[in-house]
Design brief:
With 451 residues, this protein is of the alpha+beta class. The chain is built from 18 helices and eleven strands. The strands form four sheets. It has a five-stranded mixed sheet. Strands 6-9 form a two-stranded antiparallel ribbon. The protein has a two-stranded antiparallel sheet with strand order 7-8. Bound molecules: 2-oxoadipic acid and nickel (II) ion. The site of 2-oxoadipic acid has 12 residues, from strand 1, strand 4 and helix 16. Keywords: Dioxygenase, Iron, Oxidoreductase.
Length: 451
């Protein structure tokens, strides 16, 4: 027997502990989970094919597992230590997201499991943003914020010890893992006490609400968790019935026969009371609950088409309520093929190829014959799920929960090299992961067909 726990198991325990903590901290999140659960059950009852497909893909059991959460940190050191902490749970930085383009002074990555088996076990990931103090023009304010951040320690001593133990011995025992989960959780806990006085909070919030959210608290509180829904439109519609207020519109592509990428919506962040260091009472708005529905990952060609159609739609959707907004999106996205054959033929999406029937076959597989094999129903093309995030959608989520402000002066500041320097590692390209997985399935097919 192996002495150490599988990192996937530690991630699974951690995501459950995080969910339990967040439901206690934000009761409205528990309400959202119940609504999502009810809508998922109704959807499955209505659609036996979907039920059978999810059963076949072994998806039913983990339908209720949260898919992602988000945190925001203030310094390179915090980000680099988080990288080591997440590695204990088999989560690695994938993708670079520049939010400055959307007027939010952060850039980000997603710590997530990378291989197929790990994603299947528990796909939990954390969208992790690093505040960019260098984008604050006011020198004195920037220095003040940096000073406050330098003084805080967001990790418990025992969490740091356990990370080092993991790195040295190559794993954690069952007991160590449990301890690690509860110590790591402390970093993401909510603190009603701000570390600064009210005037400092106000000055930072004036520059951008996000800066105050990162700088004025003891640590990077989890700001939302996100379960998976089978019908995002229905949950959006029914949120008011259970007393929670949805954000104005669902982000991402419209509803489709063959879902692409990622659709997301949330309930609006709550205004929570805060005790400031000078005993001044005030409030802060940061925490919310989100839901997501994922579709197929797009190739660079498919992604370019998505981005172009989204830009076109945006010129027409400004200020529209969700229903009208979705209507316009649906019209514009008629230009995006909505059947597996065309998605495959035009090279718009990534697929996992499986052999259905090898009777009467011989010879190698190249891309031309692959097409032929699919047409002859010998090979099945299974869409590969998109496991990452969308910068325009993320910006919409940020903005709807931070008072809707976006500051154009931050624009045009993508800097992946600076982000990686802070992280202490390179981020893996999400596109490489999808392309590699598709290629691996073609290689497997080739062996099966020639073997
Ligand atoms: C992160 C927003 C991004 C998503 O689902 O796109 C995100 C944040 O508000 O910190 O979680
Ligand atoms: Ni999110």
């Amino acid at each position: 027997m192996r002495p150490y726990l599988d990192p996937d198991e530690i991630r699974d325990r951690f995501s459950k502990a995080m969910s339990d903590m967040y439901q206690l901290e934000v009761p409205q999140y528990g309400t959202l989970l119940k609504l999502v659960d009810a809508v998922n059950r109704e959807t499955l009852d209505r659609d036996p094919d979907l039920h059978a497909r999810l059963c076949y893909q072994q998806e039913l059991a983990r339908l209720r597992v949260e898919r992602h959460g988000a945190i925001r940190v203030g310094t390179a050191k915090e980000l680099a230590t988080l990288r080591r902490l997440f590695a204990v749970m088999g989560m690695f930085p994938v993708g670079y997201y520049d939010l400055s383009e959307a007027g939010v002074p952060v850039h980000a990555t997603a710590f997530r499991p990378m291989d197929d088996a790990a994603l299947k076990r528990n796909p939990f990931r954390l969208f992790t943003s690093l505040l960019r103090l260098e984008l604050i023009e006011d020198q004195a304010l920037r220095a003040r914020a940096s000073d406050i951040l330098e003084k805080r320690q967001i990790f418990t001593e025992r969490a740091l010890e356990l990370i080092t133990i993991f790195e040295q011995q190559g794993g954690l025992t069952d007991t160590e893992a449990d301890q690690f989960v509860s110590e790591a959780l402390e970093t993401f806990r909510w603190h009603q006490q701000a570390t600064v006085d009210h005037a400092t909070y106000q000055a930072l919030a004036q520059e951008h609400r996000l800066i105050a959210d990162v700088v004025c608290f003891k640590g990077p509180h989890i700001n939302h968790l996100t379960p998976r829904t089978l019908d995002i439109d229905e949950v959006q519609r029914r949120m008011p019935d259970v007393g929670i207020t949805p954000k104005d519109v669902i982000e991402g592509p419209p509803r489709r026969q063959w879902p692409i990428l990622l659709r997301q919506t949330s309930f609006k962040a709550l205004e929570e009371s805060i005790d400031f260091a000078d005993h001044h009472d005030g409030t802060h708005t940061a925490r919310f609950g989100e839901i997501e529905q994922r579709g197929v990952a797009l190739t660079p060609k498919g992604r370019a088409l998505y981005d172009r159609l989204l830009r076109t739609a945006r010129t027409r959707t400004e200020g529209l309520a969700n229903e009208a907004h979705q209507q316009v999106l649906a019209e514009v996205f008629e230009a995006f093929p909505d059947d597996v054959d065309t998605l495959h033929r035009e090279g718009l999406a990534y697929f996992d190829y499986h052999l259905r029937d090898r009777a009467g076959l011989s010879g190698p597989v190249n891309s031309d014959t692959l097409k032929a094999l699919i047409e002859q129903n010998i090979v099945r093309a299974e869409p590969i799920t998109y496991e990452d995030f969308l910068p325009v959608s993320a910006a919409g989520i940020f903005q709807s929960n931070l008072g809707g402000r976006s500051d154009h002066s931050y624009e045009g500041n993508a800097n992946q090299a600076a982000f990686e320097a802070a992280l202490g590692a390179e981020v893996t390209s999400e596109l490489d992961l999808y392309a590699r997985r598709e290629q691996a399935s073609i290689d497997r097919l080739r062996t099966e067909l020639t073997g």
